[in-house]
From TrEMBL, chain A:
The keyword Iron applies. This is 2Fe-2S ferredoxin-type domain-containing protein. PROSITE patterns: 2FE2S_FER_1 (PS00197), 2FE2S_FER_2 (PS51085). Residues 263-272 have a biased composition (Polar residues). Belongs to the succinate dehydrogenase/fumarate reductase iron-sulfur protein family. Residues 275-294 have a biased composition (Low complexity). Coiled coil: none annotated. Residues 16-103 form the 2Fe-2S ferredoxin-type domain. Residues 263-300 are annotated as: Disordered. It comes from Micromonospora lutea. Its cofactor is [2Fe-2S] cluster; [3Fe-4S] cluster; [4Fe-4S] cluster. Keywords: 2Fe-2S, 4Fe-4S, Iron, Iron-sulfur, Metal-binding, Oxidoreductase. Pathway: Carbohydrate metabolism; tricarboxylic acid cycle.
TrEMBL record, chain C:
PANTHER family: SUCCINATE DEHYDROGENASE 2 FLAVOPROTEIN SUBUNIT, SUCCINATE DEHYDROGENASE [UBIQUINONE] FLAVOPROTEIN SUBUNIT, MITOCHONDRIAL. The keyword Coiled coil applies. Residues 491-601 form the Fumarate reductase/succinate dehydrogenase flavoprotein-like C-terminal domain. The keyword Coiled coil applies. InterPro entries: FAD-dep_OxRdtase_2_FAD-bd (IPR003953), FAD/NAD-bd_sf (IPR036188), Fum_R/Succ_DH_flav-like_C_sf (IPR037099), Fum_Rdtase/Succ_DH_flav-like_C (IPR015939), SdhA/FrdA/AprA (IPR030664), Succ_DH/fumarate_Rdtase_cat_sf (IPR027477). The lineage of its organism: Bacteria, Bacillati, Actinomycetota, Actinomycetes, Micromonosporales. Residues 14-435 form the FAD-dependent oxidoreductase 2 FAD-binding domain. The gene is sdhA_2. Residues 503-530 form a coiled coil. This is Succinate dehydrogenase flavoprotein subunit.
Length: 367, 268, 656
């Protein structure tokens, strides 16, 4: 943990000027530190030395310290970088080094930001759909066919591309509609996967991920620590594939005449991918929850009318103790009474799409 | 992956950092030279297109690419390799059938888009430097959604490159018979670079092989895709090189046609 | 802030999986597929687990590259690598099931490198007789973790379709640390911990807990492990009444970077050697030929010429000694450095630059090349690397039932998988076996945890007092302001372990280590952390320290007890293997505050498995008594075998 104060053989340690952003969501500012730096060190080493000496509560994420996990993303002299991959030797001797948290995401404390935006977008991206006719062990793929997808699977999810992308960095309001470069290459990876069974990835990228927001200014490629050609090999091919389907006049004409090739807007959440592995307990699970969804799109859909095809969640029995009663230990419980009879995960009011209420005049409107 | 149900919700604030950007390098340099370079070229090209003279060297059959094919009735008949169809008003460029498509091909090119979005539109001027606009919708709606038509302009660009190649070949056939001069080499070099730029286009890469799901089933297209990918990596360099060769070719032809210099002849 | 006003967030789950590395995620997938409501607890962000660091590959006898490979051969290699101290049943299950687990990953979307006929490509690795490691360049661990992560997302998408919420049946609690397991009698009732982000407490009520927290490397000065590897799972299990075995066996990866200092400990994958890299001392000598132990003499080349032929013609040549099992290589490097033939930074040279063309190196070892270039500005295509032994993996861990992964000891409802469990790897782990270990035993632990929940008649209850105690313990370092800085204590602990319980051990040093650990225990009990509860790394470390300490005590005690050298345990005063010690596992348990050590006989290998080995090979490991048994077995086998043959012949005769 950056404790080797006795430096390398050769150059003696020198003091260097650092400015590090300290604070949280309520506010904060850049604070100056003078830190000892040895030859061959990276910025993360210096942060660790600070933790061990001047600032034991300086918050910073890190794991592998080898550029493989993508945890120590931060902005160094204004550029998003991995702390463990930024060598001190790349700076001038007397240069002040400014370290700030990722600007695009809400700050938690000091250099740690709330990157849950990325995980939410990851959950919305439809997963790999295995071919239905192949058993495990029977998959045959050629190296040349998997290479393109393999490039994208190098991604270490450091989210530097996400934080540098001006679409959400400078326009927070686009976060709803725009998934970001990381998830464009995920879509590209699956679309180029030789055995993926879904065919709607291009439409998904365009309609749900907001591929059109990208104006290919290539900053994602510039900051990628894995040197993935995000724009040239991922985003632009996806844009071209979208053109194949949506902006090719012949295809467009054909789809108008034969009414084909149109994918419903809600394909992602409502359509069941044919090959998805199903759990044995699906449907009949004991713990099924009418959990509160914060899916804005579903809400919009719910505004438009009742979703009659929605599967009504099974009511949930709360956990009971050995005597078959609800555990009532108010001292440690997080609320002032027994667990909710509707299940712990249900929050009220229920999201609109979970209500089976039909407006009296709705049928007339539909006719 | 913190769940919504239990952890405190609500909009959480970003880190309060006063400086718009903390970059200390010369990030403004690249957009600046892009603006200077592109503006200079556009200015030169505009002047030349509406000059309506010095585009044809009778003696050596040199035709500048800015006037190819020459299709107005003002054109010198020998320079009109493909006929004359349009009236000779000054506002109509003499290569009116091709110039708009060439312009659109470059305007919708994935590289040029990056270049002018960054340098002219400041969206964003450089990485991690704030966008110069209050709102942003990218290429999701008109007019910028038209950028998706790049592929069709690529098809036109291929045809135009064929025409330019034909011009370069015709230039070997002077009124005195076969001949080679410095102008021929310049025309030829320009055409080769134009082809390299056109072929290295992202749309071309997609059409040739990128759209395939299984490379292993199309070995020939896979190889072609491999070559184009090699070129494609150099698309930016080729974009600038071709701007240079186009201007140089045109300037050379103009200089010879105006009699400012005389062509250096090797044969005939 | 007093305990009574402390807010505690409370959750009910069927199975709580602690640890979100390969084993944890695989266990969670299995529990969820069995219909159980599952929580995954991760100390860092989802998908950042230390599994990403595994580079070489996942060993599985699929026989894609060499069709002579089979589970029996894999089993044999594993036992041999572990010096016959492995739990044979675990090694057997592992060898048998790993191919299925790998193929399963493909249905989750993994993209391994391919052979010419489109199957999963397999590569050579130290200790494996045939090319056996499924791999993706040199980032196999990343592929594995990403694949499992994406599988969990796909299950969440299913739940969203069926129940309207992604978190309905499987939920990831990231940046959350568990500090205590809660019991109802001898049954697991739940787990208590805190969100690292906010410092808020969280209580899981769950009848089954799967531990998959990985290893203990952070107790060492030079380590490849990340901050997470503080032995949490080991300590939680001990405190819950489970036992640890084989804690004296730690693997020191032979080739960690030693220069430049900031990246000391980062691994250089074994594939560098598998692809032709050689080890040289400061005199330029390829020294590994001097260190081939007698047991391996037969399989390894004697001259550089033969060794070099092996890369292209492995069937007719013996392998180069650079591919000896890790402990042998680590020991060889250590001896060279001690003899004064090391580099200035205290390592040896690993040279691939002069062996392969630059282009080929970049193609075969892309992330190695990228890592060295980026981290140290060293171009491995041009210059040799400076490498030395690094603490890398702990073979020991929670003593579990081989089939179910259920922890032994007095506790029920506790399961363990992956590095945190012990027995599978014996005294030394073969490269590539850890990734397949995660999958095989992760699945088993998750599945059996689900079965255990099904069999329960009533749900265990969390005692209020236990929660209060846990809250007090967790907040104590923040309330003290007189104690020492946790970072200082960690440095001191690392110094003790690194210097006195390191790769080469001596009795006097181990005794000294135990004294110092006892002193540290006093100091750790009084540690104080500055700052508040919100994302405070100092506080987090203060809480992790007691886990590191108790596990270190186990390691030191067991290392002192075992008077022989075997695999990951080298005693300078007892330099040879002792067949009597092979029959003993050292079991560590906690009685109140005190670490207890007991001897336990190894389970006896089933006859058909013993029969897979040569007598000559067994003679190196087994006692005379065991060998006599083996001879008797072979004799009866031959007799019954012959009888069976004649019977079969007779049958065939009849059918004609």
């Amino acid at each position: 943990m950056g404790t080797e104060t006795s430096g390398a053989p050769g150059k003696p340690a020198a003091k260097r000027q650092f400015r590090i952003w300290r604070g949280d969501a309520e506010g904060g500012d850049l604070q100056d530190y003078m830190v000892e730096v040895n030859e061959g060190e990276v910025v993360l080493d210096v942060i660790h030395r600070l933790q061990a000496t001047d600032a034991p509560d300086l918050a910073c994420r890190w794991n592998c310290k080898a550029g493989k996990c993508g945890s120590c993303s931060m902005e160094i002299n204004g550029m998003p970088k991995l702390g463990c991959m930024t060598r001190m030797s790349t700076f001038e001797e007397n240069e002040t080094i400014t370290v700030t948290p990722l600007r695009t995401f809400p700050v938690i404390r000091d250099l740690v930001t709330d990157v849950s935006f990325n995980y939410e977008k990851a959950r919305e991206t439809p997963a790999f759909a295995p071919p239905t006719d192949l058993a495990p062990g029977d998959y045959r793929m050629q190296q040349v066919d998997v290479e393109r997808s393999q490039e994208f699977r190098k991604c270490i999810e450091c989210f530097l591309c996400q934080t540098v992308c001006h679409v959400i960095r400078d326009h927070d309001e686009n976060k709803q509609a725009f998934s970001g470069p990381r998830y464009f290459i995920r879509a590209a990876e699956l679309d180029m996967h030789p055995l993926d069974a879904r065919t709607d990835r291009k439409d998904y990228a365009q309609t749900e991920q907001g591929l059109g927001f990208c104006n290919i200014t290539k900053c994602c490629t510039e900051v990628c620590p894995e040197h993935i050609k995000i724009t040239d090999n991922g985003i632009i091919p996806m844009k071209e594939r979208v053109v194949d389907r949506r902006y090719d006049p012949l295809v467009w004409l054909g789809s108008k005449i034969f009414r084909r090739g149109q994918v419903p807007q809600t394909s992602v959440t409502s359509e069941h991918s044919p090959g998805a592995v199903r759990s044995s307990a699906a449907g009949g699970g004991v713990h099924s929850h009418a959990g509160g969804s914060h899916d804005a799109q579903a809400e919009v859909q719910a505004q438009q009318g009742v979703n009659w095809h929605r599967e009504v969640p099974h009511p949930t029995a709360p956990a009971v103790d050995a005597s078959g009663k609800l555990p009532l230990t108010e001292l440690t419980f997080d609320r002032a009474a027994a667990p909710s009879p509707f299940g712990d995960d249900v929050t009220f009011p229920l999201p609109p799409e979970h209500l089976n209420f039909a407006h009296p005049t709705q049928d007339e409107r539909n006719h | 992956m913190t769940s919504s149900a239990t952890r405190p919700q609500g909009v959480r604030a970003r880190a309060a950092i006063a400086a718009k950007t903390l970059r200390t390098d010369r990030w403004w340099f690249a957009p600046l030279i892009t603006v200077i370079g592109l503006s200079a070229w556009v200015a030169y090209a505009t002047v030349r297109v509406f000059m309506h003279k010095w585009y044809w060297v009778e003696e050596f059959s040199y035709l500048t690419p800015f006037y190819s094919p020459c299709v107005t009735d003002r054109c010198i008949p020998e320079a009109s390799h493909f006929g004359q169809y349009l009236p000779g008003w000054w506002i109509i460029p003499d290569a009116a059938f091709t110039l708009p498509f060439l312009l659109l091909f470059r305007l919708t090119c994935y590289y040029y888009r990056k270049a002018y979005y960054r340098s002219f539109w400041l969206s964003p001027p450089a990485c991690a430097v704030p966008d110069g606009h209050a709102s942003y919708s990218g290429e999701t709606r008109f007019p910028l959604i038209v950028q998706n038509s790049h592929r069709y302009f690529f098809y036109f660009a291929v045809i135009i490159s064929l025409i330019n190649s034909w011009d370069a070949i015709l230039a070997f056939n002077t009124p005195q018979g076969f001949g080679i001069g410095l102008g021929n080499l310049i025309l030829l070099g320009n055409v080769i670079m134009l082809w390299a730029y056109t072929i290295s286009c992202h749309s071309c890469r997609h059409i040739i092989g990128g759209r395939l799901k299984h490379f292993s089933k199309h070995p020939v297209r896979y190889r072609a895709w491999g070559y184009i990918s090699w070129l494609n990596v150099r698309h930016m360099q080729l974009a600038w090189i071709t701007l240079g060769t186009l201007a140089l070719t045109d300037f050379y032809v103009m200089s010879v046609a105006a009699g400012w210099i005389s062509d250096l002849r090797f044969i005939n | 802030m007093t305990t009574t006003t402390t807010r505690i967030e409370r959750h009910h789950y069927d199975v709580v999986v602690i640890g979100a590395g390969g084993a944890g995620l695989r266990a969670a997938i299995e529990a969820r597929l069995a219909g159980k409501k599952t929580a995954i607890i991760s100390k860092s962000l989802f998908g950042k687990a230390h599994t990403v660091m595994a580079e070489g590959g996942a060993a599985a006898a699929m026989g894609n590259v060499n069709s002579r490979d089979s589970w029996q051969v894999h089993f044999r290699d594993t036992m041999r690598g572990g010096k016959f101290l492995n739990n044979f049943r675990m090694a057997e299950l592992h060898a048998k099931e790993s191919p299925q687990r790998i193929w399963e990953l493909e249905t989750y979307g993994a993209l391994f490198d391919r052979t010419k006929d489109g199957k999963i490509s397999q590569r050579n690795f130290g200790g494996h007789e045939y090319p056996r490691l499924a791999h993706v360049g040199d980032r196999t661990g990343l592929e594995l973790i990403r694949t499992l992560q994406q599988k969990i997302v796909s299950l969440q998408q299913e739940d969203k379709r069926e129940h309207g919420s992604y978190d309905a049946r499987i939920r990831v609690f990231d940046e959350t640390t568990i500090t205590e397991l809660l019991l109802d009698g001898d049954r697991i009732a739940g787990a208590f911990g805190y969100y690292r982000e906010s410092g808020e407490f969280i209580l899981f009520e769950a009848p089954a807990v799967v531990l998959a927290t990985g290893g203990v490397g952070r107790s060492y000065k030079v380590t490849s492990n990340s901050w997470e590897y503080t032995g949490d799972g080991h300590a939680l299990a001990l405190r819950a009444g489970a036992t640890l075995i084989n804690m004296e066996f730690l693997q020191f990866h032979p080739t960690g970077m030693v220069w430049p200092p900031s990246v000391k400990g980062i691994l250089v994958t074994e594939s560098v050697r598998g692809d032709g890299g050689i080890l040289k001392n400061s005199e330029g000598k390829r020294f590994m030929f001097d260190y081939v132990p007698d047991v391996f003499r037969k399989q390894y080349a004697e001259t550089p010429e033969e060794a070099d032929r092996w890369y292209t013609d492995p069937d007719n040549n013996r392998r180069p000694p650079e591919l000896l099992p890790r402990d042998e290589v680590a020991r060889a490097i250590n001896s060279e450095v001690k003899a004064g033939r090391g580099t200035p930074a205290g390592g040896v040279y690993l040279d691939i630059a002069s062996r392969l063309p630059a282009e080929e190196i970049r193609r075969r070892l892309p992330s190695m090349h990228h890592q060295f270039k980026g981290l140290a500005d060293v171009d491995i295509t041009k210059e040799a690397m400076e490498v030395g032994p690094t603490c890398h993996y702990v073979m020991g861990g929670i003593e579990v039932d081989p089939d179910s992964g259920a922890a032994y000891g007095s506790v029920r409802g506790l399961f363990a998988a992956g590095e945190v469990s012990g027995g599978m790897h014996g005294s030394n782990r073969l490269g590539g076996n850890s990734l397949s270990d995660l999958l095989v035993f992760g699945k088993r632990a998750g599945g059996h945890a689900a079965t255990y929940v099904d069999q329960l008649t009533g749900r265990p209850r969390v005692a209020v007092t236990a929660v209060e105690t846990a809250v007090e313990t967790a907040l104590a370092p923040l309330h003290r302001d007189t104690g020492e800085n946790p970072y200082t204590l960690q440095q001191d602990l690392q110094a003790v372990m690194g210097d006195l319980v390191g790769i080469i051990r001596r009795e006097a040093e181990l005794e000294d280590a135990l004294v110092r650990l006892a002193e540290l225990r006093e100091r750790v009990a009084k540690v104080s952390a500055a700052g508040g509860r919100k994302y405070n790394p100092g506080w987090h470390l203060a809480l992790d320290l007691r886990n590191m300490l108790v596990v270190s005590e186990c390691t030191a005690k067991a290392a002192l007890e075992r008077r022989e050298s075997r695999g990951g345990h080298t005693r300078e005063d007892f330099p040879t293997m002792d067949p009597q010690w092979r029959r003993v596992n050292l079991v560590c348990s906690l009685a109140g505050d005190v670490v207890r050590l007991a001897r336990k006989p190894l389970p006896k290998m089933r006859p058909e498995l013993v029969g897979l080995f040569d007598r000559a090979e067994l003679a190196k490991y087994l006692t005379d008594e065991e060998l006599t048994e083996f001879d008797a077995l072979v004799a009866t086998d031959a007799a019954t075998g012959a009888a069976a043959d004649t019977a079969a012949d007779a049958d065939a005769e009849k059918e004609r």
